[in-house]
């Protein structure tokens, strides 16, 4: 088989060596925009011939694109335009969602297979290529259902010849996971290298004191910026989420060290030692899925209507009670006063309280369930508690708890969610799932899917906000777009807002509660205490039962909760105007991009860089001034311009790199 390889670096060169040595390829034809790479590859036997993209498309049965990810999409599209029937194109970049979207509508999409062989070193170029780089490593094929069956089989044969194990994943899931296990480690190494270089000006001291630990940790900092800068750009959303989680852990380490908490530092290190399970080869569940043709129909969770488990419910559903059960008197009095308001549907109290730091109040424990049961008997209302493991589930059910919820710190751990799901197998009890601490929609959905897999249909979601970095007016940033997207994907899922944890203070509760109602949420979970200022936990975000009733009474409830809203002529006309404006905007944006492409052609012909920083700064400042005069917020203008600017760069990059 004649194999073409575009991009003769470490990955492309190493693939060429082994595919030919192991008899998979009879000849390797290579293409690279760096003449020195071609020269080295020919002199070392990596390539037998050099060819253009057009020549590869005409003579090769298999073409492997091993270029930086910012140019691979354009190269793949160009190849798909030219290849013959039966030729397979695959790419080996470490981001997959972008390229899968780029080729999605191409008429030869089935002849493309998106791959990621997870192997490499910090070295680059054809001189770094070597035999057996891929042996016993893992290759990932993404969105295989969009490729032809024969084409996938051929791609799998390539990696079998390279002695790799192939698994299948969805492209977005791949990019999310790879952000944590690969991209984050490279950023950490780059940051460590920058830190040491900035602090240690005397390089001789670094050399004399650096041990193997430093060398192994900072090794990746030698990796090529040509390769990694485009990767971080393409996977920015997932990389940013990974960094948020990482920074949170760094801050916890710093806090424990600053305060001299050696036992806490010890515990954190001890817990981190569990990473050895992954390093020793433990695989993430559901990664290894055999390839199969696409399913007919769409998988959908079975979600029971909320009025089947809360009859006669009137919007909003209100779940309220103290953050923590502290004493029997406090629980019962708070619940009785809440019941007396007539505004609350379900009583709640924290029994087990996960805390970031040890030696804080971590909940009263099982004895609090007895107090909550007495409150249920005294008021005739349903009760709800948070559970984090199998034991919590068993104890809660034993004391007659009607509704369970899974907290944010538990949702983030699939193992814990699965333990809860297993404990609930065959038990018909409503379960609400709070969003994970980090802004990870897939984790949130995954928790709901695990519970659904255990046969639970009485499901709901609780939006309690997401961990943020830096100072904001919220304890947890709302990031409304994530629960909105969850609701779009699961329209039957009841969505409950937890303003107490979003706000972290009682002053903002009414504002966030109203916003949740305006977004058509099913209900609210608000913390209430008979004496909030003396609460043992989260005192600032709790309110008295009377104040809670005032917040609920002050809500404006709009149409749209049950089913489709009837639209009168006035609203229909206004919406038609919006649709027309949107159509005109898209037309103008398309025309704008045509001008941008002309600019890109000019820059290419005159050897100018795409990014002109001073011009971009001028555009921002001028647009901010115009936007303010037109009543548009600075935040909106900035987000809009960044999106348009990025699209402009993409168009100009395509012009620059066209062969």
Low-pLDDT residue spans: 277-298, 561-565
On the 0 to 100 scale, the average pLDDT is: 84
Estimate nothing, just give the exact number of structural domains.
4
The CATH superfamily of the largest domain appears as Aldolase class I
The name of the CATH architecture of the largest domain is: Alpha-Beta Barrel
The description of the largest β-sheet is:
8 strands, mixed
Number of strands: 16
Oligomer: single chain
Count of helical stretches: 26
**Cα gyration radius (Å):** 29 Å
Secondary structure category: alpha/beta
Strand portion, in percent? 5-15%
What order do the strands of the largest sheet run in, or round the barrel if closed?
Answer: 3-2-1-4-5-6-7-8
The first-level CATH class of the largest domain is given as Alpha Beta
C-alpha termini separation: 26 Å
Instruction: Assign a percent range to the helix content.
Output: 40-55%
**What spatial form do the alpha-carbon principal axes imply?**
globular
User: What is the CATH topology assignment of the largest domain?
Assistant: TIM Barrel
GO molecular function: chorismate mutase activity; NAD+ binding; prephenate dehydrogenase (NAD+) activity; prephenate dehydrogenase (NADP+) activity; transferase activity
Organism: Pontibacter virosus
Keywords: Oxidoreductase, Transferase
Domain Chorismate mutase: 565-656
């Amino acid at each position: 088989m004649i194999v073409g390889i575009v991009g003769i670096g470490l990955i492309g060169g190493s693939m060429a060596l082994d595919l030919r040595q192991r008899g998979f390829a009879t000849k390797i034809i290579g293409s690279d925009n760096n003449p020195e790479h071609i020269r080295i590859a020919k002199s070392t036997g990596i390539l037998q011939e050099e060819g253009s993209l057009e020549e590869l498309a005409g003579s090769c049965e298999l073409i492997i694109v091993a270029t930086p990810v910012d140019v691979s999409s354009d190269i793949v599209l160009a190849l798909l335009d030219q290849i013959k029937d039966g030729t397979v194109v695959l790419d080996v970049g470490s981001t997959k969602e972008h390229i899968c979207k780029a080729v999605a509508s191409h008429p030869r999409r089935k002849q493309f297979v998106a791959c990621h062989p997870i192997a490499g070193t910090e070295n680059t170029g054809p001189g770094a290529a070597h035999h057996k780089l891929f042996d016993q490593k893992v290759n990932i094929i993404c969105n295989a259902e969009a490729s032809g069956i024969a084409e996938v089989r051929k791609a799998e044969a390539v990696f079998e010849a390279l002695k790799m194990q192939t698994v299948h994943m969805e492209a977005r899931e791949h990019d999310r996971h790879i952000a944590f296990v690969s991209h984050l480690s490279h950023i950490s190494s780059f940051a460590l290298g920058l830190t040491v270089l900035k602090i240690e000006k005397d390089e001789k001291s670094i050399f004399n004191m650096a041990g193997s630990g430093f060398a192994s940790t900072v090794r990746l900092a030698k990796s090529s910026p040509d390769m990694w800068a485009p990767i971080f750009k393409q996977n920015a959303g997932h990389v940013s989420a990974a960094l948020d989680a990482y920074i949170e852990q760094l801050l916890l380490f710093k806090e424990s060290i600053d305060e001299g908490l050696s036992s806490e530092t010890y515990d954190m290190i001890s817990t981190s030692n569990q990473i050895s399970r992954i390093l020793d080869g433990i695989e993430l569940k559901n990664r290894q899925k055999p390839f199969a043709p696409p399913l007919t129909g769409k998988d959908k969770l079975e979600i029971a209507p909320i009025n089947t488990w809360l009859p006669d419910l009137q919007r909003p559903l209100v779940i309220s009670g103290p953050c923590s059960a502290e004493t029997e008197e406090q629980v019962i009095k708070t619940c009785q006063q809440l019941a007396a308001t007539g505004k609350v549907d379900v009583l709640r109290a924290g029994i087990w309280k996960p805390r970031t730091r040890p030696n804080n109040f971590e909940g009263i424990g099982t004895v609090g369930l007895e107090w909550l049961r007495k409150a249920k008997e005294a008021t005739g209302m349903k009760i709800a508690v948070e559970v984090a493991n199998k034991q919590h589930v068993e104890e809660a059910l034993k004391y007659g708890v009607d509704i369970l919820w899974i907290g944010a710190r538990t949702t983030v751990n699939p193992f814990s969610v699965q333990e809860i799901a297993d404990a609930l197998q065959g038990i018909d009890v409503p379960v609400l799932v709070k969003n994970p601490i980090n802004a990870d929609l897939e984790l949130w959905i995954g928790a709901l899917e695990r519970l659904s897999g255990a046969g639970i249909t009485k499901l709901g979601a609780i939006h309690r906000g997401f961990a943020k970095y830096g100072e904001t007016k919220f304890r947890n940033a709302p990031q409304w777009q994530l629960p909105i997207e969850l609701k779009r994907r699961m329209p039957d899922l009841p969505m409950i807002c937890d303003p107490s944890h979003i706000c972290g203070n009682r002053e903002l509760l009414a504002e966030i509660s109203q916003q949740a109602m305006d977004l058509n949420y099913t209900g609210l979970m608000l913390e209430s205490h008979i004496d909030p200022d003396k609460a043992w936990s989260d005192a600032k975000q709790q309110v008295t039962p009377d104040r809670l009733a005032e917040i609920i009474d002050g809500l404006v409830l709009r149409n749209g909760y049950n089913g489709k809203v009837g639209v009168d002529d006035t609203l229909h006309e206004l919406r038609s105007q919006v649709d027309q404006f949107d159509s005109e905007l898209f037309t103008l944006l398309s025309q704008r991009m045509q001008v941008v492409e002309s600019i890109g052609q000019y820059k290419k012909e005159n050897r100018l860089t795409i990014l002109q920083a001073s011009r971009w700064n001028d555009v921002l400042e001028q647009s901010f001034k115009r936007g303010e005069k037109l009543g548009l917020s600075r935040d909106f203008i900035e987000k809009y311009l960044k999106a348009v600017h990025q699209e402009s760069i993409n168009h100009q990059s395509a012009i620059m790199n066209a062969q």
